[in-house]
Amino acid sequence: MIRKAIIPAAGYGIRNLPATKVIPKELFPIGNKPAIDYVVAEAVQAGVTDILIVLSRNKTEVMNYFDRSPELESYLIERQKESLLPLIAPTTLRIQYVRQQDPLGLGHAIQLGESFAAGEPFAIMLPDQISLSRTSMLSPLIKCFEQYRTNVIGLQSMKQELLINYGVVSASRIKARTYDIDSIVEKPSVPPSQLAVMGRYIVKPNIFDKLRQTKPGFNGEIQLTDALNNACQSSRMIGYAYNERWYDTSIEEQYIKLQHRALQLKTRNNK
Ligand code: G1P
Which residue's CA lies nearest to atom 10 of ligand 1? Predict the structure, then answer.
């Protein structure tokens, strides 16, 4: 069973400037909810009970979003708008926060979760990758983890020209949607396949040893991809290829499509 998830949300959001100068990318609205709310809901749907969100200095609003807002609660009560209270109710989930003091990369952000993981396998969920699928995108990875008892990475087949934005694996197919991963490389100029890493992972706690051994890589940052590549040299790593549609909120066109899709689903559900 996977009970814990780490959501790294400390990046500067360079691809979404200038909005990210003041609005954390994780709080970009999708309908009337911020992006990170969808990711947390996805974790809960898959049975996760404890979440660690890694933040940076200018992201305190993420904590505020999941906390109580007493002034707003009183205001709604005074104006007889109690029916809106559930919308601003604080989360009942166990969410913890840690700050990444320097932008040293995704791998470094995950390292900050070592005491949170406390020796258990856990999920990593990158909040700029969102799917509006009815079922949690973590669930099939957890199922693979239970079957193979080893690291599992969510993958998606991508158009060649998009691969430069992602980690890309070299892998051989075991059965429908399931792969044995031989290696994984971050943002390759010559991709080894069309299977890109989709921001959902289940990892064993020895990933922290691998992260400690990892030197700065792409962009001078400690890359999770490099630690995973190291891990798959010594133990099996499974890839699960999604069929569902993903949206990357860092890519403007996909973010706008995500908005449209969310609105369509809301209208359909309200009918
Ligand atoms: C990160 C990972 C990359 C993965 C991607 C998915 O990159 O390093 O391997 O494919 O997320 O969104 P980033 O988007 O932080 O550049």
Answer: 166
3-state secondary structure of 269: helix
Q: Which of 54, 126, 194 to mutate to test the pocket of ligand 1 (most atoms within 8 A of CB)?
A: 126
pTM: 0.96
CATH code assigned at 34? 3.90.550.10
- Note the pLDDT tens digit of each residue in 27-81: 999 999 999 999 999 999 999 999 999 999 989 999 999 999 999 999 999 999 9
Domain count for the chain, please give it. Answer: 1
Report which ligand 1 atom has the smallest distance to the Cα of 198.
6
Range of the domain at 31: 4-270
CB 27 within 8 A of CB 65: yes
Q: Show Cβ contacts of residue 271 under 8 Å, excluding neighbours closer than 6 positions.
A: none
Q: Which two tokens stand for residue 137?
A: 């995108």
The distance in angstroms from the start CA to the end CA of the chain is: 37
126 CB near ligand 1 (under 6 Å): yes
CA-218 nearest atom, ligand 1 = 8
Q: What is the DSSP letter of 20?
A: G
How far is 154 from 140, CA to CA, in rounded Å?
9
